Each structure stands twice: as structure tokens, then as C-alpha cells.
Amino acid sequence: MAVVRSSCGSSARLTAPTCVLLLLLFAFVSVASASRDDAPGGNNETGRAPPEDSHHHHQQTNSSTHHKKAFPVLSFNYEHVRQPFEISLWILLALLMKLGFHIIPRVSNVVPESCLLIVVGLLIGGIIKAIGEKAPMLDSKLFFLYLLPPIILDAGYFLPIRPFTENMGTILVFAVVGTLWNTFFVGGMMYAVCQIEGAQLGGVDLLSCLLFGSIISAVDPVAVLAVFEEIHINELLHILVFGESLLNDAVTVVLYHLFEEFSHADTVTVGDALLGVVCFFVVSLGGIMVGAIYGLLGAFTSRFTSHTRVIEPLFVFLYSYMAYLSAEVFHLSGIMSLIACGVMMRPYVEANISHKSYTTVKYFMKMWSSVSETLIFIFLGVSTVAGPHAWNWTFVIFTVILCLVSRVLGVIGLTYVINKFRIVKLTKKDQFIVAYGGLRGAIAFSLGFLLTNSQLKNMFLTAIITVIFFTVFVQGMTIRPLVELLAVKKKKESKRSINEEIHTQFLDHLLTGIEDICGHYGHHHWKDKLNRFNKAYVKRWLIAGERSTEPQLISFYNKMEMKQAMMLVESGSAAKLPAIVSSMQNIQPRGPARPRAIPSISKSREQEIRKILRANLQKTRQRLRSYSRHDLLIDPFEDGLSEVRFRRQRVEMERRMSHYLTVPANRQEIPSVRKVCFEPEHQVYTYDTDGESLRGRRASHSHPSASDAAGLVNESTRRPDQSGAAEPRAKVPDDQEDQDQLTLSRCLSDPGPNKDEEGGGSFLS
Amino acid sequence: NLRKRFLQLSGNEETISREHLDTIPALAENPIKAQIIEAFFDKRNQRGDEAGAFQEIGFEQFLMVMCHFRPPTLKMTAEEKEAMRKEKLRFLFNMHDTDNDGTITLEEYRKVVEELLSKSGAIGQETAEAIADAAMLEVASTNVPHMAPDEFYEGITFQHFEQILKGLEMESRMNIRFLDVDTTTMRCGRSTS
Lengths: 765, 193
Hints:
The structure holds two protein chains of two kinds. Chain A has helices at residues 2-9, 16-34, 78-103, 105-110, 113-131, 140-157, 161-166, 168-194, 206-216, 221-231, 235-264, 270-302, 312-329, 334-352, 355-386, 393-418, 428-436, 442-449, 454-486, 498-518, 523-542, 552-571, 576-587, 603-621, 629-633, 637-660, 669-678, 703-718, 723-731, 733-747. Chain A is mostly helical.
């Protein structure tokens, strides 16, 4: 596909016309692939003649003939690779679309990506249909087994636990009671609507309506994620809507199967209804249990992987996928199982696996979920065009209206009840966003697709698609201006500082203490108990080595410190070190105890240092700490990189320290790192006027370590980075080496005999 | 009911002393137990302008301290929420500032971190010091970016404290669920007059 390759090369200068060209190309190739089978992962169709198409090279078939031919030098055998070829092609072109959207910033600011992708799907479907071929449909099996799990795993693994558990009650109420209310309201009202004469809907009975209601009422995590990620709303609202979309899966599964079964049976008894309730508990709790078991297994496995680091990420993915599949075997809630697995596994696995593996896990998850999401939306568009439709004005219009109405009523009613139990109440604005954020998506479509009753199925599918389109397009597009208009609190964008961490922990203990004094066992009390249980028993089993006893504050502190170290090294000016030393001076109480005087530095240098220092502080403070995959890919790409680097650097440093330390082995090396770093009794480096390069005195004994570290840093500079930073770094590898030695020598503890001096340094937040 | 709990703690007397609070079994696991107990007896938390500590406190003072943990109501205006947040932060500040000089010095902050880590196993003192130092430095650099080398950062003042913790949204976090909400709010309101 030479044409594809050439357009990829020019993608940097894509403009709208080129995008359209790309789109047409996509369409043509998908036509070509569509002409061969029904669905892209799909079954082998036989006997379809390939269309006369200019893109295909002249063919020489390999079919056997009865007379001897010359030995074929070049032959064409597309059938051989058809299936993987088509799959790869779809994925590739879907991603190119995604790329294209971000190159045209004007559109992507107004329209959320999901809408654009659906539009692309529509266009492609339209083109395919216009040519007369049968377009691939979003196969339910493909969706539920391959496309949905990565997204849910990504969501579950990176679920912010603290806000989730703090709002668990609210989320559960919205998910369970809200979905039930929606189902019965929509189902019941639709039945009433169907009784209206003249709507030609007489054939729809109550159970079918209820079934329809159960499909349409569930808030969809994929759509919510796609839209909410871009509006950066505050954490509480995000977790409320998102948590609800995740947890309502259990309800949806039960209701769907329940009504499906009932619609085949003739009578429904009260016993059946009771069994349904029991089924709900079994499905949800069973799903969670399955997930938890696999999660613990995964955590336990990761304890032993210290010698085979390369396969660590695979364990995370495989255990999670197995959890999902195992839950699906028993018709338990696969989504809840996946979430439970991710949540359970994460703290232990992250303590055990290497830093490279951690990065791998993070990036692969984001990557897969991104691909899945793109594919889902495109297929949604294609299926809309392709699918058999039965448009019934009354049915569709009423469905849309009723969905909206029931959602609003449900949220208002439930909030009224919930607010009686919440400490921090939900305001009207919050309620509005929660109601407005109830988007429907591909899960509803796939469930509808699984319906067996074909005469009503088409009508239902049409209505479902209309609702999905309405919510995703109308609500998705307008939610951002509405959030601005209502001045809803946005997510705070600063990185967590050490002070905040200290005080969060302090607050936890304080509130637990106050609760104990008050004598009632509240939320904090149980959380504290759980933490203690976790520390005493579970961590010992699941975390390898001495990390199991490391308190959270310390590990947080380690991470932060190393991050700062790496940022300092990365930004290429170790001129900050003297400033840090002087700052340390500022907070140390003056006293006669200081044996060594610190040589002072001139005022002008000072000013420069402070400027650079402040600039760096500003930079660090503005880093987004978010779990959205867009941010991961686009904006603090550097952040992710530096995280990688500092983790690597930290591993290296720890190894070095264990070589060079003269302290007894049973002490953790980490304290000694910090001990050195805060000693102000070190000499200051002189440095050059331009502040970029540094002439420092090398610590002689740290040569081998420095070269390793320099190797590390050089390696990291080779990686693609934001354009500005890479250039100067490549030009001054020597300085980098110096700084690295600085970093190392700075952080090596208790000076051995052959150390000349060290730069004192401490790390700012 | 808080009144019943008070009587239960005090052994049906009018006042409670430190020993009464010390004997609560659930508090034994708490690393900052001493600070919490001290906070009840701190005069600064009583909305007067006095300093120092009581030896025993009555129900009024007990309730006064509990007032700091009431959640914001829906009807509060932005200023009221701001005032509440200041009040809660002040409570925390008083807990750290043990010598009542209006600033949290490095020593005091070190003690805070040390206490926090005290129940977490054998952590060296240098670790706690290092963390406290880093935190202090962060406060210093956030609030006073233009410090000359011979200036000395005395300690964290209340403004600086507010500044560094403004991301935490105290008014939503520092709350506990009271079983008897109306009484508490009523009394807290009355005590301001």
C-alpha cells in the first residue's frame, strides 16, 4: 500500500483536505476488505470476487492449473494474510484518524473526540454502502471480549481509590437504585406509549419494553470516560458519574438476563422476581470475589518476579483478563470483576515490580484502551449505517425524551435521599452535572444487538442508536460550555506536595482519633482498621523484601525526591544546587554548632539562581496529575518520561549506594540518601556565567558510577522528547555527565575517605 | 449523643482531664494521640484569645473543640465556607505550634513528622527529619521566593500554612459525622457571640 505510506510521511503537514483524502483512502481500503467478509475479525467468506480496484496490483493467482507454468517469481496471495491484514488495517487507519483530529485543533476543541470518531464511522459506512458492499457490524462477541476489557481495565487499575471509597455509598445508590428506577420508568412508560392507538406499536408487550428499558438505562463507562476526560471536571463529580457507570454493570447484566428469560417464559411469578434479587447479589458479589482472587494471585505472583522482570507486565494483563473471562463464564459481572482485580492488585504489584515494568504496564494499558475506544466509536458509526433499521417516530422520540426525564428525576430524587447521609452535600450544580453526564454508549448497542427477537430488534436498535447519538453528540458537545457557564469546580492541577501528603495522613489520624473520642465507629475508624490489617498481614505476604514495611509517607517521599533529582538533572542546570544550599541555610536555625562555613556566592549569581529556581518550581507545580489517557499521551509526556528516568536513576543510585556505603547492611539505604542531601556542610560548586554548562570538580571515586549514570542519561536523551529540551542536552553531554556525577556524589552518603567534596542539596517540591 | 459520651468519658463528672481521654482503648493505636488529646485542652481552640492549656475541660469546651469538625451546610455562602476553612486550618496550626509563638518552627515540624511515623515501625530519626526539612523548604520556597542567603526563615506562619494547604479543601475533608447535628450547630453558633 504505497499510497498509505506516502500519506503517512506527509502527516506532519496535514490539513483538512489531506484529512479528507485520508478518509477516502480509508473508505476505499475498507471497501476492499469489506468486500471479502462481513466483520473484521470475522468469518471466512468464500466465493466473493474481489472488485476491480486500482489499488490492487496485478494479480497472478496461485491456483493450480493443469498445464505446467513457469515458476512464479512474483505471486499474489492475499487470502493467506487476509484476516490479520484487515484487522491491522482497521486499527491503523482508525489511529490515523485520531491523529488527524489532533492536528486540527480548532475542531477538537469544540467537538469531543468521540463524536468525531462516530462521524468518521458514519462516513465510512456511508461510503461502503454507497458502493454496494456490506459493511462490517459491531459484532457483540468482538465488542465484549476484545474491545471492552482494555478500557475497563485501564479505568479500574488507575481508579483513584480515595475518592472512590469515600463516595462509595453515593455511587452505589446511583448505580443500583438509579439504574433500577431508570429501567422501570422507561420500560413502563414505553409500554404506556405503545398502547397509544395509531402508533402501530401494539405488538410490543410489557416484558419487551422492560427489556428495552434495561438496555437503554445504563450509563456507559466508555462514553463517560471519553467525554469527561476532556472537560477536567473536579474529582468528586468525575468519580460519581464514572463510578456509577462502572458499578451499574451488575444491575444491567441481571436485569437483561432476567427479562430475556422472562420474555421466553410464559408466566412470571413473585418467586422469579425474588430470584432476580438474589441473582443480583450473586452476580455483583461473585464478580467482585472472582476479581479479588485473581488480583491477589497476581500480586502474589509479582512477588517472585525479581529475576524475570521482562514478563512482569504480562502478569498484570493476563490475570486481569482471566478475571474478566472467568466472570463471564458464570454470567457474573465481568466489569466488576475486572475492576476488583485491578484495584486489588495495584498497590502490591506496584511495590514489587521494577520501574520499567511499571511504565510498561501504564503505557500499554493506556495504549490498548485508547485503541479500543477509537475502534468502538468508529464501529458504532459504521454499524449505524450498515444495520437494519426500523424507524418508528413515536417510539424513538419518546425513548429519547423519557431517558432524559427519567435520568433527571432519578438524580434529583436520589440526591435528596443521599444528602441526608452525606457529610458534604451535593449541590444543585453537582446534581445537574451528574444528570447531564449520564451518557449511553456502545454497551447498550451491543446488548441490543444480542437480542434474539428479530421483529422488535430492529426497532429497538434504531431507538438505542438514536439515544446514543443524542447523548454523545448533544450532551457530549454541550457539557463543556455548560461546565464553564455554571462555573463548576475544575480539577486542581497541581502536583501533590510533601506538605499535602503529610497533612493528608495527619488528617486521617486526627479524624480517626476524634471519632474514637466521640465513640462512634465511622468511616475513618474502619479505614484505619483496614489499613492496619493490610500492613500487618497482607503486605507481608504480597510484597517482596523490605518494601513491605515501608510506610506510605516514606515511599511517597522517596518518589518525590527522586523526581526532583531527575528534573534537576534533566533541565540541565545544576546551578540550582548552591541556591538550594543557601535555602537550607535559611531554615536551619543559626547556632554555634555549624562547624564549617559555607562559602558565599556573589549576588548576581544568586539572582540568576533564584530565577532559574523559580522557573523550575513553576514548571513542577503546573504539571497535571491526571489519569486521563490523553494527558498521558500528549501533555506531560515529559512528566512520564522524567518519572521513568527518576525511577531508573533511583534504582541505579540505590545499587550504587549499597556498593559505596560504609553503613551496616541492615539499614535501609534510603535514609542515608536523605541524610546526605540535607547536610548543609558541603561546599558549593562554582559555575559558569551562562548557567547552562557547569565546570565542577569531579568526585574521583565515582567515575565508574558516573559513567554508568551518564550512560543512563544519554540513553534517555536518545528517547524522543519535547523538542526544546532534547537539543541542548544532546549538545552538552559532558555537562550532563558532570551533573550526573554531581547528583550521585551529592546523594551518596557518609563520605568515604576519597571523596573530595559534595554539593549539598536538598530537593524542593 | 455527645453529652452522653462526655459523661461516659468523664465517669459522670462535670469535667474530664487528660487521663480520661488517655484511657480510650481505640486511641492507643493512633500515632498522634498525644497531640489530639492536647488539642482538647488547648485554650487557643476555645475562641477566646487566651493561650495556655486547661487541666480539665467541661462539656462546653469539649463541644467547642468538636465544633471544628462540623461539615459545611448547603446554605452556607462562600464567605462562611472560607471562614470555616480558616477555622479548621487554625485548629491544625495550633496542633503543630506547640509553643504558641505563632509560627511552626523546624523543630516543631520535625516533631510532627516524627510522631506521624512513630507507629510505623523502626524508622530512623534522620528520615523524619529529612522529610520535615523538605516540607519546610517547600513552604519557604512557595511563600518567600526571594530569600537572600542570610535571611532566616523563622517558621511557618498561619498565612503560609493556609497557602500550602489550600489545595486540600479543608472544609470538605476535615469533618466527622455527628449523630446529633442540630445541637452541635446550635451551640457552635451561640458560642461565637
